[in-house]
Every structure is written in structure tokens, then in C-alpha cells.
Write a structure and sequence with these properties.
Blueprint lengths: L1 H10 L5 E3 L4 H5 L6 H17 L6 H14 L6 E3 L1 H12 L2 E3 L2 E6 L2 E7 L4 H5 L6 E5 L2 E2 L5 H8 L6 E7 L7 E6 L1 E3 L4 E6 L3 E6 L6 H15 L6 E5 L8 H11 L4 E7 L6 E4 L14 E5 L6 H11 L4 E4 L7 E7 L5 E10 L15 E2 L8 H5 L20 H4 L13 H6 L5 H11 L11
Parallel strand pairs: 1-18, 12-13, 13-16, 16-17, 17-20
Antiparallel strand pairs: 2-19, 3-10, 4-5, 5-6, 6-7, 6-8, 8-9, 11-12, 14-15, 14-19, 18-19
Helix pairs in contact: 1-5, 8-9, 9-10
Amino acid sequence: MPKFAALARSAALVTAVALIPATSATFAQVDGRAGPEFSKLFAVYQRVKANYVEEVDDDKLIKGAINGMLSSLDPHSAYLDGSDLQRLETMIDGNYSGLGLSVGMEDGAVKVISPFRGSPAEQAGMKAGDYITHLDGKLIYGSDLDEAVSQMRGPAGTSIRLTVFRPGRDEPFDLTVTRGVIELEPVTWELQPGNIGVITVNEFSRDVGSDVFDAWNAMREKAPGRIDGLVLDLRSNPGGSLDEAVALSDLFLDKGRIVSQRGRARGETLLYDAETVYRGAIARGVPMVVLIDAGSASASEIVAGALQDHRRAVIMGERSFGKGSVQTLLPLGRDAALKLTTARYYTPSGRSVQEGGISPDIRVPQMSDPDLAKRAKFQLRESDLRSHLINEAALKDEELEKDKLDDPRFQVTAAELEAKGIKDFQLNYALETLRRTAPGRVASRN
């Protein structure tokens, strides 16, 4: 099934997934009491077919019924067919010409989930949470997402004008973006002054664990001496493969639980422990900071939660997105699949990150963002999504944002930081913290 092999890889861009076969026995296990409800559904179908003002295609009605059924469950369950599969497959395989945006549809509007790092969209100033209302002056509100995506794609070197509404700003504004060849890089690295390594994980696609392992070895070879600190940057990483989240965590841990998964169906309760993917631990004794923000979701939260619970790293930045569920891909024939939420996951200490997310040990706002104060009022997390799963602890939003006092360390403006040459305040703060930290203290607290 080559189509579903590609699908499994592509779905890892957005959520923790597992691919399992759909058996006839699974579909046979339907509650007999559901018969009258199916009768209602069929009755509605018949009346629409007979009486709607225009003739309606069967495929449209059935797909609409399926989408309505799944949207009533949670924001992450979905029906995927031809165009959706093709778009996801293209994204994971890379080498396509476009803007480098991950987008979704929200109440008829095209919403930016995140721009890929280094992409034309990011360089032009697009940010997660932006809404695109017009393309080259043409209104796209209420249009089909596939149609909007196809318009944004095009030959490298050509330009398109986006009209953007950014929460926190009073007026929409235009951005002209020149399309480029998008090559997705799951892992990048650099060596900062003071022999501080920075490894950035942009997505949890295939082989992320081995890519980080290679990045660590490359930094060790390049460094003039030992590595004195390590930053693992998981900001704006929307997640991906559960297996790769386990593999990445296992690189830095040599004992104990990494994550547990608990579901209702048999086979959906699983335990993942250290020493199952990699033997030993890299960067042993090296002070370590993990950077997260509101865009860090799913697999990113698994890694941050594991390293936090085992006290292997200081978690720094802002509270993460709060997606604590696992989705499974169930094939429906050759050209369609059901992405269904089948389990919740828990950190080693038994915490569910659903709704609440991972709270950083040291909260550091992104002061280099000039729209920080305004954007904070409209920051979107799992708890803001319609029909999201409820955390069993029934946490309330006010309990998730306890500390509202101004911190004297974070009173500098974006303009003042830019004048000092600081373009990324959170990363700079992490680097300065590690430079002041002797190995074996604070960030490595085993």
C-alpha cells in the first residue's frame, strides 16, 4: 500500500500518529441501538436528494455527513481523501515550489498554523495565528482550502500579494511573498560562542532521532574543546511521529519512563521506556535548556515533558500548546483514511498535557516580537479549540496562567533589543543562562 505509506509519513507533520489496519471485525462492532439513528441519517439524505433546490452529488452529501460526524468529536479527528492525501504527501516529500506555510481552515478563514523556518513566508514576516483574507486582492474567505493552497503555490521566483489579518492589530495589511523551492529540514544545528550547541527540531518526521544524534556528533567535532551547554529548540514545532518523539527523548535519557499512552480500545494502552531506541545517553553532564512556546505541540510536548520530569533539562520559554492526544490512521479503501483520536498520552510522572500543556521552569516571553503584548491576548492553544478533549483534572484557564506580575527582567522593548543586535530574545536568554552555568549545575540536575 504505497499510498498509505506516504500518508503515514505526511500525517506526522501535524500529529502523533500510528498506522494500523482496519479489519471487518472492527466495523462489525456497531451498537445495535444505533439502528434508529442510522435511519434518521438515511431519511435526511433521501429528503435532501429529493427536495433540495439544486441537484446534489452523492459524494458531497456523504463526505459532508462524515465530516460533520468527526467534527463533533474533537479538532484532530478528520476524514482524508484524494486532495488532502496529496497535499500532505507533497509537504512531507518537500521540493515543491511555494510559500512554505502550514495552513488550515477555521470558520471559513485560512489560518496560518506556522510558517516553515527559513521559508519565503517566514522571511516576509508571516507568523503563526495570522489569517489570510485575500490573494492578489481577491477575497478567499469562505472558499475551499485546497483552492487557496493551490493559488499560493506556483513557480519559484514568482510573487503573490497576501492580505493578512493579525490578531492584535487594528487593520489588515499586505505582504508580498516571492515563492521559492521549499525543502523541509526537520533538524538544523549551530555552534554558538562559548561552545554552546543549539539544535533546532522543526518537525517530528522520519529519522529525527538519528538526525539529532548526527547533529550532536557534528557539533562535537567542530567545537574547540568540549560542549559546555546545549539548547534544544522545540518552539513552533507542531509535533509529528510519536516514535520519533520517543527516540529523541531516549537520546538524552538512560533510564525510566518516557511517555505512556492510554486508550479505550485494546492495544491502545502502551508504555515507552528509555534504552529501547538508543543505548546510553548523549550529552551526559552537559547543562541543557529546552525552548518551548505556544506553538510547541504533541510530540514536542512529549519530549519536553519527559526531560522535565526526569530533571534532565530546564524547560524555558512559554506554556506549550496542550495537545495530549494520539491519532491513529485507519485506511478506508485505497484513496481515503480516517484520522481518529484513539488515546491520550501522559508524561513520566503521570501528567496529562491536554489543555494545560507543559509549563516552563523559567517563563521567558519573546520580547523581540513587537506585537507580543497584543498577540498574547489572542494566543491560540488546544483549550481554545472547539470540541477539544477535556483534561481529566478539569483545569481552568485562570489556573493555567497564575503569574501575571511584571518581571523586571523582561521590560526591554523589541526596538531596544534590535539596537543591541538581539533578534531572538528567548534564544539569547537561554544562551546567556548556559554561559553562566557551570556543568553539572541547574540545567543538568540528575
